[in-house]
Amino acid sequence: MLLTEAAFSQPEIDVVEVHHYKANVASRGVPKGLGFSYVGELPDAVDASGEAGAECVWRMRRTDWKGIEACDGRIVELC
After folding, report:
1. DSSP 8-class letter at 44
2. How far from the centroid of its chain's Cα atoms is residue 53's Cα?
3. pLDDT recorded at residue 62
4. Could you tell me the sign of the dihedral formed by the alpha carbons of 60, 64, 69, 70, in that order?
């Protein structure tokens, strides 16, 4: 939340993205709870030990950002 607010305080930044591995289901709740839009998946480009598979991408546009005051109680600890 604070990182999104900081990013949009810079006039040249119009979009913020969050990426997480698809296998990390808990990570999905962060961008979803902040109102980010799910864009899709990036294929697993590297076959390496410890790699967690496809990457999920979430996006927030400056015009859609409601600001830090819009933080709801479910994610207040992230604010």
Report:
1. -
2. 18
3. 93
4. negative
The strand order across the sheet containing 55-61 reads 15-21, 55-61, 37-42
User: CA-CA distance, 55 to 75, in Å (whole number)?
Assistant: 22
Mean pLDDT of successive 10-residue stretches along the chain, which has 79 residues: 86 94 87 92 68 84 81 46
Q: Residue 54 region, left (φ>0) first, then alpha (ψ -120 to 50), else beta?
A: beta
The structure tokens listed for 13 are 């930044």
Distance from C-alpha of 26 to C-alpha of 49, rounded to nearest angstrom: 22
Q: DSSP secondary-structure letter at 20? A: E
Query: Per residue in 9-47, is it b (16+ CB within 10 Å) or e — as a string?
Result: eeeeeeebebebeeeeeebbeebeebebeeeeeeeeeee
